[in-house]
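Recap for those who missed Tuesday's class. We walked through two folding examples back to back. For each one, the amino acid string is listed first and its predicted structure tokens come directly after. Nothing is annotated here on purpose, so try labeling regions yourself before you check the end of the notes.
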Amino acid sequence: MRRKHCTISAARRRFLTGLGGCLSAASLGSLMPQLALLPRTAMAQSASDYRALVCVYLAGANDSFNLLVPRDSESPGSLYDSYRTARGGVFSASNPAGLALPFSELLPVRPEGSETDYGLHPSLADFSASNGGASQNHAGLHSLFQQQRLAFVCNMGPLLEPISKRDYENGAPRPPQLFSHNDQERLWHIGGGTRNDPHARFGWGGQLAKTLTGGPLANGLSPTLSVAGAAHFLIGDQLLPYQLSAEGVNLIDQYASGGAANAEGARRAVLDELLADSHDSPFMQGYADTVRRALSVGESLAGLLDGPEGQLSTVFPSGNTLADQLAIVARMIRISRDQLGARRQVYYVRFGSFDLHSGMFDTGGSLTESGHGALLTTVNQALGAFWSALGEIGAQEQVTTFTMSEFARTLSGNGNGSDHAWGGNQFVFGGAVRGGRLYGRYPRLQLDADDDTAMEWSFARGQYIPTTSVDQYGATLARWMGVTDTAALDALFPGLARFPSRDLGFMA
């Protein structure tokens, strides 16, 4: 068999010698995963039918039983008393190992249909955002719940099938590597499958986008977009996410098309000639095609984001990295919907540091400005500003934002924090959300609970077995996005048929 030799074309030679390798392989390589290569399937929806999901991943495992707390009474035997006891008492200087929040500090809510009052963490209050000399008041998550724009889904987590405590002890199927950050995050991203399932190559957000759109827009923009780097959640079959930074599109420096500097224009002309060259190797040809498309998409987006349609007057809080991510998401939603003809999109942002084995509270520190409370303040202010921005661009009814996090944390403390658990609470908000309610079963918050009638099961430190699955959560969001066929939902979430409900009801 004859071996084919690669030869250097004239264009390639001029590029290498004339530019001295100014464009590194790493620069081009970083563009490789940003585009899906399938042609886009035409969609019938009009601009008014635009819909997007925005996943806010709370990395490290948010202590969500301090996010939403029973607030019925401080009397012995109340639900709040059960919570306070399981958490080792209220944190104070005299009880630094306690993990419970003070009754009086909780922001009161009465969920629709509930006979019990609850309280939200005090960090979820309304606030004023300041940035660059400008300031603006925004509603916090507490107000959004009161306005029926936000709902909680309770005691949820990865499950292979419904499972009781007795089932668990008898060896019933359960997710692999429980209490492991990496493994449980992956299960949230793929929709509750197993590591060995072929379906696990893809994320349910990516597969959802592929089902609804077929592939990228006409200009090459993927329907899945990340502002937080690589995200398994957004990968679909032959569909890869487009990655932005909080500052916008990352372009190649000193290679502007028609750049003011003569050198930039010359570099770009040679690069364009090189990318247009034909290659014997399919890999080299695919690489060149991908880089060419990435350059085209990136420059198109940069122009739109810099234009009037890409600007916002909403004030996002300064020094808030999650707010920075959500600001670019709001700008991208506007130009994608109004300028690029997008009808279905899925976004991913990320905020971390929730793995609080220590530092849940700081002695002498404010509940909202230290420890776990400081993290929730960041989340609250980022999402409150994002909600205002969606109002500015007329997209509050068209965008649904939801949280994911590996697991909740143990109800009992370890001295100054809490450890890895399983089921926890997540929230979802938007104009299409049936808010002001709790979905799923909020547990009584007891250590070592075992009540089949109430579906109340926890281990010795209060690690609750979920009673609602990630599959049900994702399927409810997928139905709102437009996937209503039973077979299509089963393809997205292969384990969905094992659960009693395919729709949790929190989307209008």
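Example two. Treat it independently of the first, because the proteins are unrelated.
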Amino acid sequence: MNAGGLRKHRASLPDGLFALHSSRDEAGKWGRYPFYYTLLALSEIDEPEALKEINYAMPACERALKRLNNNSKFTKRRRDLLLKIMN
């Protein structure tokens, strides 16, 4: 939704963020939504609800950062995203 290309995509963001909020799994993630892709999308949304979801995920971000221990290009991208989210 945030990337655009859909009709009235900006108007649909609140509903999408509500659906995301409803999918919380109480472990800092959102069940069926991929963790890193969701964080990336949230980092680009300028809405208070997006920031609330980022704050909800902060403990999971901290745990994930500790587990990233190899130097593959994918790990680097994930680490960079986590550091961006956490700052």
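Answers for example two:
Residues 43 and 85 are 7 Å apart (CA to CA).
The chain has one domain: 9-86.
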